[in-house]
Design goal:
single chain; alpha+beta; Agglutinin, subunit A; Hepatocyte Growth Factor; five-stranded antiparallel sheet; four-stranded antiparallel sheet; 25 strands; 22% helix
Length: 490
Amino acid sequence: NLSSAAAVITADGELAVELGGGEVVWTTGNAAAVEAVEARLLEEGNLVLVGGDGGVVWRSFDFPADTWLPGMNLTGDRFLTSWRGFGDPGVGKYSLRLKPPEYGEVELVFDGTESYWSTGKWTGSAFHFTNPFKPTASFGYTETSLESGVRPPLTRFHLDTSGQLRQYTWSPQAENWNMFWSQPENLCTVYGHCGNFGFCNARLLTPCNCIANFQPVDSGAWDSGDFSSGCCPQDAAKCSSDDGFQEVGVVSFDGAVSESFSGGRSECDSTCLSNCSCVGLIHNSRTNLCKALFGSLLNLKNLTSDSTNDDILYIRVPKEGVTKKKKKRTMILIGKIGGIVVVISAVMVVVALLFLRRIRIKRVKREKEEEDAGEKWFFPPWAAKRIIEGDVAAVVDERLVAGGYDVVEAERVGLVAVWCIQDEEGRRPTMGMVVKMLEGVVEVGVPPPPKLLQALVSGESFHGVGADSGTGESDRGNSVDSHNHSSTAE
């Protein structure tokens, strides 16, 4: 009964989690050291146990889970590990560690062996390929005050169950965490992202799909974006010598162990069917080379149509589950392409309804206000301000209000629109990222208010993004001299 669980300091001086009946499910394991008399949660998020002499006898920062906070160090035997799944804090298959044997770079690893992303080597001041953070000599990272004395926003790194490393910053105004950086950007480069028998295609809205006649092992996890459980045959019948083979095509994959021999297709089939551990085969009709496959088929990807590779993959399935490959795959592709077109079209229509209709309604009211206030009014920055403040209803067409609309979706669309009109080009999301944001795959944070558009209309000079627009300091390198280069709109 988790409702009766409690954290207690035991007679041995350990911090333990006990269930209602006194059953201990976790301890800090520091009994052999100095006994603790008090537990403290420090401001930086470090949970510590303090001994009778006031010294720290145990620190949670020495035992990282899936989150990396400022002041927490990685070492040769201390690394991050993802959760097993959504809602399951068990040990997952992905980890962030220092790369052995030199330990001069940070890498993401699958199952402790397969590296699929790295920062590049440490040069003394930054990593060679990418520099999302600047670690200290012990490969931790810290936050220092800016020249103005203002501290940057609190940040943390999180190793997601998808195998992606994400960086978040805390927004005191919105009181939530905003994700602004993640690696690898292409989820299909994450080892085992789609699990066993799962195809990965980063161009699709949902990157993972099962092989024809296969289905997700855990449909609930797939619906929530966790594809690591992979796929299994729709007919879960036991292994039989009457099984058949489903043609998949020319693909690349990882994970499986193969046994090669020469022979025709019939000999290849019978050899695989004689062993229930054989999950499929590869046959080359030109060379008559056959490979029986055992284990998991991970990272399945279609090779290009102009590939000269004649190795065809066939997956073992119950005899009644064998279907023609081309017809099935064509239907899947048409469905996906159609879905993309519908989503993009729907987004364009929604944005048009949200903004163009509102411009007509507000224009007459605003003209008089402009005369009274002596300033020019422009809809995009006005709407952006309302959206950032959480008042998305102010920019929604009255007809949508009357018919009812999803407030959460409207807020998401509005925030994405504001990100797309940011002053700095580097802050604007790519079209691929926009799709992910609208889909809900990527969290949409609260953007800083854009100022350039309003400056162009009002005739004011534009001095870059100020400290109040989310960067913490003015962008003086991109400023425009107000006397010689002011921008005006006719």
